[in-house]
Amino acid sequence: MIHLVGCSHHNTPVELRERLAFSPQTAQAALARFREEFPQVEAVVLSTCNRVEFYTAAETPEELLSHRQMGEFLARFHRLDAEGVLEQLFRRSGQEAVMHLFMVAAGLDSMVVGEPQIRAQVKQAYDLACRCETAGPITHAVFQAALKAARRVSNETTIHRKRLSVPSVAVAEFAKQIFERFDDKQLLVIGAGEMAEETLRYATDEGARHITVVNRSRERAEQLARRWQGQARPWEELLEALAQADMVISTTGAPEPIVRLEDFRRIEARRYQRPLLVLDLAIPRDFDPAIGDCLGVYLFSVDDLQEVCRQNLRERQQELPAAIEILKEETAAFMAELNRRATGPIIRRLRQNWQQIKDEELRRLFNKLSHLDPRSRQEIEYAFHRLLNKLLHPPLESLRDHAQEGVPHGLLDALRKLFQLPD
Amino acid sequence: MPSSLVWIVTIAYLAALLLEVTRIYFRSQLRGAALVGLVMGGLATHTLLIGYRWVGLGRDPFSSNFDWCLSVAWALAGVYLYLTLYHPQNPIGIFTLPLVLLLMLAAATVASQEPFAQSQEARILATMHGLSLLLGTVVVFLGLATGVMYLVLAFWMRRKHRPPRLLRLPSLEWLQRMTQRCLLLALVCLSLGFVTGLVLSQLRHGYINWADRVVWTTTLLMVWLAAVAVFILLYRPARQGRKVAYLTLASFLFLLVALVAVFSTPGHIGGQGAGERPGSPSRVGMAMPGESLPEGSLR
Fold first, then answer.
1. What is the pLDDT of residue B1?
2. Which of A160, B42, B208, B236 lies 20 to 30 Å (CA to CA) from residue A7?
3. Owning domain of residue A51
4. What is the sign, positive or negative, of the torsion defined by CA atoms of A189, A192, A193, A198?
């Protein structure tokens, strides 16, 4: 059995999520305390910027904590009012909890649908539970199955391949269509803001090495250049740097275009129409749009890139039904396996009991018929074995059939009582 | 057998082209393997066909228009297979295989023409002439494919459109480099073919008939290629972007005119095996190695 309580960006304000959030250290402390209080129960804490989820599991319903107890534990740990917290938490059990975890791991429950980082976060949460020894047979199974299901979604759909951030789209969808390689290209960064840095990160991931930063504040340009092993040039040399550049990332906060058409015309001849990719990520725009009509220039503004981001988001959403279908299949397969595992101990005990009876009866019979030759003894042993299997087949078959739809607690109880199986 | 082999090869390439076109509509993990299998099968049969004609019938790749077209198609299909293995995600076949099929169609059209009469004189020069023309034609065809790909991708990018996801082409930089190389190689090969043709004609017949349409279309092609060379040398932007693609496209058109002139001239190449009118003027530019004219004719 598995239970889940949690809160996410879907239903809980950020103020509560912040208060319930765990850092790796506090999650470790919480799991350690949980193990002390509930040594029989398995637990995993998943905490990201958009969600806090608390999973518990136990072999029997009696051992399992209620949702209320789980919420109270969270509130107690964070020193919050339990009733206030319980009101805000969503609750899931059994198959619903499993499906939810699979959706989370595959990124389908994320704020940005299909974002791939969540899979690593789920794995980290599971690893932490393993290290804190609060993971057990059920949580091992369900988290491993969740990671496997997420991999399947990633392999069988394109949901993760469609990029949604402007810098990643700029580099992956446009820069890579223009340039084959980046290590021999001159990359010019105009401005030293966050967007410039994020785009730089994607460009350097693709191999960009020759980075020049130009910024009105020389100091900030030098700081950014130092971080990316580039060089800073004074603002006055902007056009000179532009003449040498192959790719430009421009993100200044200037109220007017910093490169006008007439400026570009002054250096155009020196470029010999060499391709120039300009990613104008500034608002208002840094480059005069007319520069985009010059030969060899590929000019993209934030609007152009955001349009592609929107298309990608739509395409991700189109992939969503296929991804959900995969997760439904995986959940059904996992639940069937989990339920089958729940019937395992009873089946094993039943077999052991009957096997014991068979062995005793055979021993008694062979004592009486000591004159039997080995071949006849073997035949008799085989007949008993077949008889045992034939007698066991119908109840075990019924048990397996019922396990497809959930743990057959009634049947298991009946078997336990009818055949006096020990707990 | 050769006729049925030609059909088998053509069908294999056609099926590969249809498979390439399906990239536009859906993703498939099996398509890549099926595509490579089909082209490899087609190429193996193609090799068998050329080998059979060469070894079995004594017809080398330059012995007739039919063999020449088959050989150009074979080389182009080989390059396509290599590029597909190198760029499995890119639908290069959509731009290359139609050219291969065009060459197979041309081969089928000229299949009934007579082979060239063989001559032992200046054999090495003649082989060099045929080989450089063949290679030059292959690179012009390949340059056409990469040039068209460049223009399509540049068209999308200039309009700030991302290419359709299932129709991803190699980068503009790669396409430009390939087109440039094809253009330069074509320049070298076709020039070599043209010059060796002139020398061959001079050696055999003592003069060149500039009025012959094969000769003047081929000369036109050479004048164009020379102009391209000068243009590229003197005007640096001509080595960049769409200009290279346009130059390759124009080179292809000049080559196409020359090829049509060669294949359609009565009494030329194919007609020579059957004998040419004594004293009739002949041409030089696209003459094939081993080709000789009946006594009395002037080439």
1. 55
2. A160
3. 2-162
4. positive
